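During the second year of the project, the team shifted from modelling isolated chains to modelling whole assemblies. The rationale, set out in the original proposal, was that interfaces cannot be judged from single-chain predictions alone. As a representative example for this report, we include one of the complexes processed in the last quarter. Its constituent sequences, exactly as entered into the pipeline, are reproduced here:
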Amino acid sequence: LKSIAVMTSGGDSPGMNAAARAVARTALYEGVHVWGINDGYHGLLEEDMRELQSMDVGDIIQRGGTFLGTARCKRWQTPEGRRLGHENLVKRGIEGLCVIGGDGSLRGAQLLSEEYGFPIIGLPGTIDNDVWGMDYTIGCDTAANTIIDAINKLRDTASAHRRVIVLEVMGRSCGWLALVSGISGGAEYILVPEEKFDLEEITSSLAAAYERGKRYILIVVAEGAAKGQDVCDYIAKHTDIETRVSVLGHIQRGGAPTVIDRVRASQLGEQAALALISGISGVVLGYSKGHVVSVNLYDAVNNKKKLDPEYLHLAKVLS
Ligand code: ADP
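Output from the structure prediction step:
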């Protein structure tokens, strides 16, 4: 194998740069050419790609975002789009592709692998930590730390005013970020899309806690569980407690990656390049229980990851 390519796709996440850098430098170390495709599948269709040298990936390990750019691409969801994408790879002599992205991006990669037998290694790049078969995705640690930072600040002001603070965090179908940041931020209530909750019950129990002298309460809500504003309005309407909502938004996607995200992304990037070079294909590489694992690409995109029941239990016990 003489030449591989790397792209980032879908929602960006801190650590994508570290992963792409490791793919590129490992390939070059092994004497293999490496192409960087800009803006995910969109760039592949537009032939927006170039060969990378070691220096092209210098000075990026510390940056959030992705130096390759990322995009969403509707055409990739059509057979015609994928045919053109395959053509654009083959005509440059590219023999393997590493796709760094979330669930959707990996699904797109799986189709290319299935339809053309094209060698693909997926890396989980998403802050949501929602890829099946692994307990870590590149960027989730930085995002959780960003949320903790916000929680620390919100606690100061909530305590000063005896307020209920509702913090809405990202997570449309997966509550991992809310759960982990809620546990480490000491939230009283954590609302996730995977678990039923009763706003009436929460409201009456927090009102009782205020009666007992509690100074403030923090509720972390994953966007897929409820709108933070709706939770805030409900509590404000049914109690006399001052309630405020804070929606963290895209701040959660950015920032310098943490040590964990940099080291893990680097190792996954290295392993992805080595896997392609040695002829392995059709898998997503990730971490599970502290070790690199290889998960079948089809399985990864066709199963829904569940929240860790031990974390759910812990949240309940500690709240
Ligand atoms: P993420 O990778 O962060 O989950 P998206 O779900 O937006 O982000 O997916 C990114 C891109 O991956 C899409 O714009 C599309 O090009 C491709 N993609 C997503 N789902 C599919 C699918 N079912 N079939 C083919 N391509 C897909």
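The first strand starts at residue 3 and ends at 9. The chain is about 45% helix and 20% strand.
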